[in-house]
Amino acid sequence: QTFQKTALISGVIIVLFSLGILAFVFTFLKTTERNLTTQQQLIEKSKRDYKALFNSIADSILIFDWNCNFIDCNEFALNLLGYSREEMKNIKPRDIVHPDYHELMRNNLQRLKDGETTLVESVNLNKNGVMIPVEIRSRSINIGDNNAILAVVRNISDRKKLEQNLKLKDN
Fold first, then answer.
1. CB proximity list for 147: less than 8 A, separation 6 or greater
2. pLDDT beyond 60 at 112
3. How many CA within 13 A on the CB side of residue 42?
4. What is the pLDDT of residues 60-77, one digit of tens each?
């Protein structure tokens, strides 16, 4: 009988110990799950903040890979060029750069490959073929594990009109 009591007490202790471990594991897993949820919420907030900042810039931002495939752009670029985001997926720089500036863009691409940050004036064409004088500042960037081309494109139509008016006044 003493043996049975000892065995029963030992069994109860083992069960309680096991339940304690299970409670600890359960608590640990719940805490980990809460932490992951919090981290996911912070990541989502960071993504929203990035997109808001990206889309609030008053210049066109275009990102292409080194094969000149479209990666991303901001809302300003979509509005200026007149394309939807879906249409932009099929756009290459040569499709939006006036043909008179294709050679300049090829040279610019080589300079970017050589590690330079470039600044050039060009003329872009919107979806309707309207010419837009632009200033393009480009550089190589890393997105994740990939290299890409970041082009910040400023519409300089007003500047060009002002320059033209000043030339007319001087003459």
1. 65, 66, 140, 141
2. yes
3. 6
4. 999 999 999 999 999 999
Nearest residue to 120 via CA among 91, 158, 154: 154
Tell me which residue of 119, 156, 132, 120 sits closest to 82, measured CA to CA: 132
Instruction: Give yes or no for a contact between 141 and 148, defined as CB atoms under 8 angstroms apart.
Output: yes
**Could you give the 3-state DSSP secondary structure of residue 98?**
coil
Q: Order of strands across the sheet with 60-64?
A: 70-73, 60-64, 146-155, 131-143, 118-125
% of the chain exceeding 90 in pLDDT: 56
Residue with tokens 């320059």: 163
Look at residue 33 and tell me whether its pLDDT is greater than 90. Answer: no
Going by the DSSP 8-state scheme, the letter that residue 97 receives in this structure is: B
**How many Å separate Cα 141 from the centre of its chain?**
11
pTM of the model: 0.74
Instruction: In whole angstroms, give the CA distance from residue 133 to residue 72.
Output: 22
| Consecutive H or E run containing 20 | helix 2-56
Rg (CA), the chain: 30
Q: What is the C-alpha separation between 147 and 66, in angstroms, rounded?
A: 7
| Alpha carbons 162 and 72: distance in angstroms, whole number | 32
The Cα–Cα gap between 75 and 165 comes to: 31
